[in-house]
Structure prediction request, 304 residues.
Amino acid sequence: MKVVVALGGNALGKTPEEQLKLVKQTAKSLAGLIKAGHQVVISHGNGPQVGQINLGLSYAAEHGQGASFPFPECGALSQGYIGYHLQQSLKNALPDKDVATVITQILVNEKDSAFQNPTKPIGSFYSKEDAEKIAKEKGVTFKEDAGRGYRQVIASPLPEKIIELNSIKSLIESGTIVIAGGGGGVPVIKTSDGLKGVPAVIDKDRSSALLADNLSCDTLIILTAVDYVYTNFGKDNQKALTSLSVAEAEKDLADNQFAAGSMKPKVEACLSFVKNHPERKAIITSLSGLDDALAGKLGTVIHN
Ligand SMILES: Nc1ncnc2c1ncn2[C@@H]1O[C@H](COP(=O)(O)OP(=O)(O)O)[C@@H](O)[C@H]1O
Ligand SMILES: NC(=O)OP(=O)(O)O
Prediction:
């Protein structure tokens, strides 16, 4: 199997301690896959982390402690922070292997309509009242996130091209375990001066699907906080989906079964990866469910 495994930012806990514990557990499952001879590339989200980094550095700047950090720089910091935990945990699980995080830039289109309609939830969850107050004070946008509260949202353009793809391929060929495309990749545009970061957060599910496609993978695994994709999620009649064909997924998407900014981009990314590729499959399950999902006992499998 050639697989990209994407770890959800929201599933990585709220503190460095929680994140390291969760990453360590997942690294054991990933190490098992690698030991079994599969080619595994790892990516991860950064929604809560990039929001916290941005908030903390903005607060410091507002209090005269250094400069404020633009979003692309915050995205790069989040790749280092989460990549460090993954690198350390994988190295501990597989001492004979080399592990490396590639700070990854991903090209987006500056005319992408996403820049006019922010949808990507970042940072912590707030009550409606607090969200309205902060939105007014700071001139930022908040949206309700899948029944969990209100979060700041930022533009989330589509990933078009992975700038460091050749470096990622070279590292894989040398036998290195690669962590890439973290936080969806730092979004950059082409200018007459070369590449330039833009204030946005790419959806890591979409960039993980692009990475898996570019690496000719047969499998994309998205690990999040739930064991399955559900229809009627959160309602009395919610139903766990063990198997989801392209046609079924398209119908459920049209029926608005999957929340925007959370489960919808995951299902769309899996669809884009498997559609018209009968040899491919995608799995959505929980971080702790990876072993069971690989044994076919848990998770939602998206297929043709
Ligand atoms: N139809 C659905 N099925 C399962 N989970 C859903 C659904 N709709 C919304 N969700 C929510 O989406 C969350 C996963 O999205 P998110 O937290 O953004 O992912 P990530 O772990 O990648 O950061 C789940 O934990 C769940 O709360
Ligand atoms: N960048 C990104 O998609 O992050 P999450 O996985 O935290 O949503």
About this structure: The chain has two domains: 2-107+159-303, 119-154. Residues 8-11, 45, 47, 146, 224-226, 229-230, 233, 257-259, 262-263 surround adenosine-5'-diphosphate (ligand 1) (CB under 6 Å). The first strand starts at residue 2 and ends at 7.
